[in-house]
Design brief:
It contains ten helices and no strands. With about 250 residues, the chain is mainly alpha-helical. Residues about 240-248 have low confidence and may be disordered.
């Protein structure tokens, strides 16, 4: 009886950690597109730095909200990976630590550092005392450079977005309480991110093409987190050990 209660408590704890990770990741999915997609489409003017900065100056609160969303995504990402570590850390301690370092430390750090590029844009727009030596045209060019660096940093971050999925995938494959299909899918998802980042560094002419082809693979991560949120860690996926003795 005590063993059965202990097992039930273990299943309940796994479900709690799984649903916590799923909920936190859902928040990342909802928040991240604001700075990644919405702001560039609403405020940035392709090939016209002066017009872009004019829009940012006129809608500064909207732009500052982009800084806040990047900070929130970095924080939430760390919490997501911590919840996954609590769920899967005992499956394989070393792979769990690798996931924690890559996804829970490196990815958030890249989010936080990239916020500095947008902060620099605001400093240049306002022309603080330290920038008095720069002409308005020079400040405009520098601000445009920092905006571009923000976009380049995202391409760099894609490498980290992919790498942390590999130890996660291996943990899913070995867990016994999550579908193995997600493990294989997460490997492909991670490869898609890594290939896109390498294309940015080595073959920039192919970057857009690869993004179009590999983009659907990135949905695996979202589907996996939705599974965790809705269905949790289901004991029905417990693996059968080949050494187990079949009872008659």
């Amino acid at each position: 009886m005590a063993r059965a209660l202990q097992a039930a408590d273990g299943v309940a704890a796994r479900n709690r950690h799984a649903r916590t990770a799923g909920l936190l990741y859902l928040l990342v999915v909802l928040i991240a597109p604001y700075r990644l997609i919405y702001l560039p489409n609403s405020l940035f003017v392709e090939g016209d730095a002066a017009a872009t900065l004019g829009h940012i100056a006129a809608h500064e609160t909207q732009f500052r909200f982009g800084l806040a969303t990047d900070l929130a995504c970095g924080t939430l990402q760390a919490c997501v990976v911590l919840a996954l570590f609590r769920l899967l850390g005992e499956v394989d301690r070393w792979r769990g630590i690798a996931m924690l370092l890559l996804g829970g430390a490196l990815v958030p750090a890249l989010y936080f550092v990239n916020v500095l590029n947008d902060a620099a844009v605001l400093l240049l727009i306002h022309g603080a005392d330290a920038l008095a030596a720069f002409e308005p045209g020079q400040r405009t060019a520098l601000a445009a450079l920092f905006l571009r660096l923000h976009g380049q940093a995202i391409a760099i971050a894609e490498l980290a977005w992919g790498l942390w999925l590999f130890p996660l995938a291996l943990l899913v494959l070995r867990s016994g309480f999550l579908p193995r299909l997600f493990g294989y899918g997460l490997i492909l998802n991670g490869l898609a991110y890594v290939m896109q980042s390498l294309a940015w560094a080595l073959l920039p002419a192919w970057q857009d093409t690869l993004s179009s082809v590999l983009g659907p693979l990135q949905l695996v991560e979202v589907l996996f987190m939705l599974w965790l949120l809705v269905l949790g860690a289901r004991p029905g996926f417990r693996r059968h050990h080949p050494t187990a003795v079949k009872r008659t």
